[in-house]
Amino acid sequence: MASALQTLPCFLRMCQLSPPPRPSISFPYSSSSFSRTSQSNGRLVSRRVKAAAASSSSATAADVRELKDGIAEFYDESSGIWENIWGEHMHHGFYDPGTEVSGSDHRGAQIRMIEESLRFAGISEDGANKPKRIVDVGCGIGGSSRYLAKKYGAQCQGITLSPVQADRANALAEAQGLADKVSFRVADALNQPFPDEQFDLVWSMESGEHMPDKSKFVNELVRVAAPGGTIIIVTWCHRDLGPSEESLQPWEKDLLKRICDAYYLPDWCSTSDYVKLFQSLSFQEIKTDDWSKHVAPFWPAVIRSAMTWKGFTSLLGSGLKTIKGALVMPLMIQGYQKGVIKFSIITCRKPPQ
Ligand code: SAH
Predict the structure, then answer these.
(1) Which of 69, 132, 158, 328 is the S-S candidate for 262 at Cβ 3.0 to 4.6 Å?
(2) Ligand 1 pocket test: which of 210, 234, 235 has the largest number of ligand atoms within 8 Å of its C-beta?
(3) Does residue 282 have a pLDDT over 80?
């Protein structure tokens, strides 16, 4: 079981059976989209969000629908196997660079990823200021939500595209005595079923890479955040472009395309693209970090665990295309080693009213 925990959901992303369309991301927040002002406040941000949300995306509606259906189907089909092998957290672990990691350390590393993210964002642990209302955007089977609800005594709502995940997340909440604290439903992160300004912590752990329109994604995170609330995005990005670069190198694009084709992802963006989106909303206190070195042991562990009996038989049971998808795993390692892929955290605070 311990070695199985090394293999996380990212591995499962490789197991999709047919490549989805890869809509381009769009950034309607060009500097000309909004008049600049130094008097940023919650209401202003809210108006800007609504205006920008109406902007069009370069991806067609049919492309986006097809991608969403594919993601939902993929997680519907795979989540039971994932949980059986890897447990309730579907994200990378956080490791000290250069340390040896044994099989049993990986679950702890996943919890550490949550804790390091909270610490980086400066989330308060004290009674009056700790989060009370949390949204888990792209919640998987709710591992983060339940952890955060227990840690802070907070109310937490999770959304996922997968009905199977939402049902399982609710069942686990019930089984753990948390049904009055956490709830999960099927909903789109790009059109969230929540009124404005609801949550003092907006949490997105490794779901942003699935979003075909990063601008809409950020708009929605901002819209549902309460004034003074914190947004935490932990996600896969491509490297930032240099000052003289307009795009990645052809070989880099090719590497990412092969990963996208295997993992059900639309086009990627860079960490600085996220920063630009938040800056265009006059957000302050935007913080980022590159945690690629802290997740380096992860993919080799995923590959090793796929080679365990349980991993291997699960893989075989998934079919030939899944095996073909598994062969793409080394490309993630290559992407990190060559500096094309970055494991990024982006946090910011919505201006208080
Ligand atoms: N955050 C979870 C799961 C990560 S897996 C964890 O750390 O355990 C990616 C999750 O993103 C899946 O639950 C998937 O359904 C969700 N997701 C992807 N695109 C989404 C969208 N447009 N709206 C809501 N959820 C989405």
Answers:
(1) 328
(2) 210
(3) yes
